[in-house]
Design goal:
alpha+beta, Beta-lactamase, Immunoglobulin-like, 3 domains, 3-stranded antiparallel beta sheet, binds zinc ion
Length: 405
């Protein structure tokens, strides 16, 4: 999901401050999208990535509690040699060897950092050449075949590009040794041209064949919208890599059929049966709530489910709204000297496509109403507050809001 999100007061943004809605892992990696990466780390837990980086031999990391979710965007210090050696592990099918400066010392045994299937799929993604971080000066030339990635650090302090083929791994860093940033310094424009120039010189040997897929990597048809295993109503389909030993086999949760009452237009509960009522089935495309709210806010058509048959509305368990702001475990501090008018706290929630209206209650009193994804503002009052967001089906979510002066 590449849509606005808030984690304990931290709201990740993409490089160009735009969002793209639903994206594939391939697109997220090729376009270096920050938001999907932060979402993934939030789902995995930060410790998992930290342990992987430790295992991969990064010696510059400070204790894990120094890092939050920005760690996945490069919010931790690394050096070029150790980073380049991790890319060499991708080239080595997931096996990482210690760095050696002399050939006559013999190789220490390798460490498995990624499975061969993971290494292969990442390599395939990084080998795609025509993409946004292709340096403009190489746009119309024939490029050597390389799996490559670029990066630009916060404040334009470092521009880097790392690439590999089955034989060589090359890392390029451009920046000031003083660490001073410079406007316009970017991995794509400064470091990648050097990387390609180096590979153009190295690549004279064409006898080495490109990487081949390990037995755990196969292709399968997936739903083009959800990327999940297609169900009977998914169209169009596309072909995608998967790992036979660990890719999930979840049938598409986006394309679902719903029972309708053609006479009234109401939706009927699943498995509804009544001898007195004729029913009809219809397929609806249901995006995850946050994505649906973002698409709608950006003027893109989103299918809305017809309302549920009135006598069932209060009875069916369904997805409660997801409060995006205020953040549940964040303490808001009122800043001195700034009018409260400018420190209002945003109330915003996402809800399922069957929800048209959300009602907000603060400390038990009705405060206002919004549509899903719409914003309402609250003038902060010091103290602890209960914020309840209720949808028009009676489902509600609660967050505790603490404001200190
Ligand atoms: Zn589908």
């Amino acid at each position: 999901e590449d849509v606005p999100v808030l984690f304990s007061g931290y709201s990740p943004e993409n490089y160009d401050s735009t969002y793209s809605g639903l994206v594939s892992a391939q697109e997220a990696l090729q376009r270096s999208l920050n938001v999907p990466a932060v979402n993934l780390l939030a789902a995995l837990g930060g410790e998992a990535l930290y342990e992987l980086l430790k295992k991969a031999g990064f010696t510059t990391l400070t204790p894990v509690n120094h890092y939050g979710l920005p760690m996945v965007l490069g919010g931790c210090e690394v050096n070029l040699l150790e980073l380049t050696n991790l890319y060499a592990a991708l080239a080595g099918g997931g096996k990482k060897y210690p760095v050696q400066t002399r050939l006559d010392r013999g190789n220490s045994p390798p460490l498995t950092v990624f499975s061969p299937g993971v290494a292969y799929i990442i390599t395939e993604i990084l080998t795609e050449v025509r993409r946004p971080d292709l340096p403009t000066c190489w746009e119309f030339t024939t490029l050597p075949k390389v799996a490559w990635k670029t990066g630009t650090s916060y404040g334009h302090k470092d521009a880097w590009s790392i690439g590999y083929n089955p034989r060589y791994t090359v890392g390029v860093w451009v920046g000031n040794f003083s660490g001073e940033g410079r406007a316009g310094l970017s991995g794509a424009e400064m470091a990648a041209p050097l990387l390609f120039a180096i590979f153009a010189q190295l690549n004279s040997d064409t006898t080495v064949s490109w990487f081949t897929p390990p037995v755990t990597v196969k292709k399968r048809a997936v739903c083009a919208v959800s990327g999940q295993t297609p169900g009977p109503f998914c169209t169009p389909l596309r072909s995608d890599y998967y790992l036979t030993d660990c890719s999930p086999e979840v049938e598409c949760t986006f394309h679902q059929t719903y029972l309708l009452d053609p006479a009234t237009g109401y939706r009927l509960p699943p498995h509804y049966y009544s001898a007195a009522r004729v029913t009809a089935e219809q397929v609806y495309l249901q995006y995850p709530p946050r994505v649906a709210a973002w698409l709608e806010a950006n003027g893109q058509p989103v299918e809305t489910l017809p309302p549920l048959l009135p006598e069932w509305q209060k009875l069916l368990p369904g997805g409660a709204p997801v409060v995006r702001s205020p953040s549940a475990d964040y303490i808001y501090q009122i800043r001195r000297g700034i009018p409260l008018e400018y420190q209002k706290i945003c109330l915003e929630a996402a809800a399922g496509n069957d929800v048209r209206q959300l009602y907000w209650f603060i400390d038990g009193e009705f405060y206002g109403q919004t549509k899903p994804g719409e914003r309402l503002f609250y003038l902060p009052e010091p103290g602890r507050h209960r914020v309840i967001c209720q949808d028009d089906r009676g489902r509600s979510a609660e967050v505790k809001l603490e404001i200190i002066d």
